[in-house]
Amino acid sequence: MDISEIKAEILNILDELKERLFSLSCDFYHNPETGLKEYKTSAACMAILEESGFKVEKGVAGMETAFRANFGNEKPAIALLVEMDALPEIGHGCGHNISGVASVGAAIALSKVIPMIGGRIVVLGTPAEELGIGKIAMIKAGVFEGFDAAMMAHPSSKRMVTRIFLGLIRLNLNFKGKPSHASAYPEEGVNALDAVIQTFNSISALRQQLRSDVRIHGIITDGGAAPNIIPEKASASFYVRAKDLNELYSVKEKVLNCARGAALATGCELTIEEGADMNAPLKINKALADIYRRQMESLGFKEDDFPMDKNAGSSDIGNVSQVLPTIHPHILLRRGINIHTREFADTTITEDGKSGLMEGARCLALTAAELILDKEAIERVKEEFRVGGKAE
User: 296 and 188 share a domain?
Assistant: First the structure.
């Protein structure tokens, strides 16, 4: 069979799987599970993969809901990533029931042709994307070693092959002062809340001198106990984002200097805590993105003309892109709706949801097949990654 026949066979298999895949996605919607608690979701993914002949290993990287499912033993080796967690209160407003099942479907279809074309497909169940930690833990545990490329597709209100993901550092700033009666003995107190407020004010002034891709946003997590008590303790939590690592670290230091200055001005002690591991920016691999784009266009889908750096967020997929060639295209769910809303979640179980799911599964499967069959294409992808790609 030539490459066109292989691809036609993959699409036929996915057509046969369509209703089962959509049913699986709907089950995830009706049983949403938050990060590191994706027990039913993970088990359902492993069950269908095991039924399809994959060798499944659960609980990888020390996380109960993480899994690895392998089919084939030749090179190249392609990883398909399955995000599974839902959001508190609004369920799969993230659309992980679409993206996760799209990877599962693509992998099953590919497994039917692997005996003919060689290569290896590995499905990685990556928990807690919304917490920004699952893929990072798996990278540290060596789970991402030995792959030639990694991919997944995420539902969106737009169809885009390449989107920027900003790097993200989480900072917790804790100030300690001295309590006192706010009316009777104000001169004896050291106001920790003043330090928090001064930090916010300094950051607000700092924004005038920041690049357009930089984001700093925070909340007060502890502002004192009562208005008549000068707060002894006060805390704030900040996210710092930028599209490249150098700028990310630079802005982080500027934010910390704002906090240090506030502590000095108010006479407070400052304790700095970094939250979960940094989410790295997405390292763009144009060669891999172009292969996906060709498959998408061959199916009659047209990419939206939209700036890839607009409406940018952060994800632990960026960390994966720093260790091997990675793509994270956006598939169209429905125009005019925003991610992380109940409306987005509800749309995943409509006909639009089914169409988006199958678009993702088809494009991913065809992209992986081309990487396996076209040795020059996979080498271009790996060479671009080796020379540095473009960390947007």
Answer: no
Span 214-261, pLDDT tens digits: 999 999 999 999 999 999 999 999 999 999 999 999 999 999 999 999
For residue 186, CA distances in Å to 276, 292, 372 come to: 38, 65, 72
Q: Tokens in use for 114? A: 């692997």
Helical spans, DSSP H, in the chain: 3-30, 39-51, 96-111, 114-117, 134-140, 192-206, 245-266, 286-298, 317-321, 342-347, 351-373, 375-386
What is the tens place of the pLDDT at every residue in 355-374? 999 999 999 999 999 999 99
How much is the pLDDT for 301? Answer: 97
Decide which of 240, 274, 308 is a domain's last residue. Answer: 274
State the number of CA atoms in the 13 A half-sphere of 365 facing the CB: 31
Q: Are residues 300 and 368 in the same domain?
A: yes
Cα angle 321, 373, 360; round to 5: 55
Taking Cα atoms as reference points, which of 261, 267, 167, 180 lies closest to residue 213?
167
Contact between 320 and 135 under an 8 Å Cβ cutoff? The reply is yes
CATH number of the domain enclosing 373: 3.40.630.10
CATH number of the domain bearing residue 219: 3.30.70.360
**Sheet with 120-126, edge to edge strand ranges:** 55-58, 67-71, 120-126, 77-83, 149-151, 326-327
- H/E stretch holding 81 reads strand 77-83
Residue 313 has pLDDT above 50, yes or no: yes
Confidence of residue 22 (pLDDT cuts 50, 70, 90): very high
Q: Given a cut of 80, is residue 20 above it in pLDDT? A: yes
For residue 74, count CB atoms less than 10 angstroms from its CB and return exposed for 0-12, middle for 13-18, buried for 19 or more.
exposed
Backbone angles phi, psi at 78, to 5 degrees: -115, 130
Give the pLDDT confidence score for residue 28 in this predicted structure: 98
Residue 194 to residues 73, 82, 105, 162, 200: CA-CA distances in angstroms? 61, 45, 54, 43, 10
With contact defined as beta carbons under 8 Å apart, do 74 and 52 qualify?
Answer: no
Same domain? 75 vs 174: no
Q: For residue 101, give its domain range.
A: 3-165+280-391
Residue 34 sits in the same domain as residue 142: yes
Contact 29, 56 (CB under 8 A): no
